[in-house]
Write a structure and sequence with these properties.
Helix content is 43%, strand content 13%. The protein is α/β, with parallel strands linked by helices. The protein folds into two domains: 5-16 and 104-237, Rossmann fold, CATH 3.40.50; 21-96, Transcription Termination Factor Rho, Rna-binding Domain, Chain A, Domain 1. The strands form two sheets. The protein has a six-stranded parallel beta sheet, sandwiched between helices. Strands 7-8 form a two-stranded antiparallel ribbon. A hairpin with a 6-residue loop joins strand 7 (228-229) and strand 8. The protein is globular and about 55 Å long.
Length: 238
């Protein structure tokens, strides 16, 4: 049975983790307070402010305290849903204003175009919010890549990336059998969870990226998408 769906992680897989941490994180951190104050009447923003209070166990936290928690979680690189939501909204504005352009490894965009042209259906599963994902792929150095992608999944609409149930939920959502789906990520815990859900897995090891030294366990390992052949029944390194 041939592959039908390719699900991609972003950081360390299609794009540099360093760019996210060194460019995007500071960009959002500098704007948390003013941005939240300016959008305080938006129900979605208010809901995420309340989510910060709930997660922090501080139901009466004022804006300064909410922002403190966002900076705290950001400094620890926590995959906290309200943090990712605020980052996504702020980044989307930055991309729309032309202040930000996303990063991709040289082999990423040609591979995505190649897989899409071959009839494979492409999806994203990232800890970054869906709004951040859409801003990222809509503002690449090679233009708008969103037409290559069928759907986006994050930890809010799907679940944690290190739990098999999240990948099972994606299979149900996209209507593609696990054995027809391959997941590409740089993190072994995510790959393990996807494999537990019945997916094919490929570990992407980008030289010099944050988690390179941790390896990808016993998953098929590649350093570039150019090494990967997705035309057969299961992924194979060339």
């Amino acid at each position: 049975m041939s592959l039908k769906a390719v699900v991609l992680d972003i950081e360390g897989t299609t794009s540099s983790t360093g760019f996210v941490h060194e460019t995007l994180y500071p960009y959002s951190a500098e704007r948390f307070a003013n941005w939240i104050a300016a959008h305080a009447d938006d129900p979605d923003v208010a809901a995420q402010v309340d989510a910060v209070r709930e997660l922090a166990g501080e139901p009466d936290a004022d804006l300064d305290r909410v922002v403190w928690w966002l900076h705290h979680w950001l400094s620890r690189d926590e995959k906290i849903t309200p943090l990712k939501a605020f980052q996504g909204w702020i980044w989307a504005e930055g991309f729309a204003a032309g202040e930000l352009v996303s990063h991709f490894f040289d082999d990423s965009i040609p591979a995505m175009r190649r897989w899409h042209a071959a009839g494979l259906v492409l999806y994203i599963f990232s800890s970054g919010s869906v709004s951040a994902q859409k801003a990222w792929f809509g503002n690449s150095p090679d233009g708008d890549l969103l037409p290559l992608l069928t759907d986006h999944f994050d930890t809010e609409n799907t679940g944690p990336k290190r739990q098999a149930s999240s990948y099972e939920a994606i299979s149900t959502s996209i209507g593609v059998a696990p054995c027809e789906t391959v997941f590409l990520s740089d993190l072994v815990a995510e790959l393990d969870a996807a494999r537990e859900a019945g997916w094919h897995t490929v570990g992407v090891r980008r030289t010099g990226d944050q988690y390179y030294d941790q390896g990808v366990g016993d998953h098929l390992a590649i350093h570039s998408f150019d090494e990967l052949d997705l035309s057969g029944d299961a992924p194979a390194a060339r």
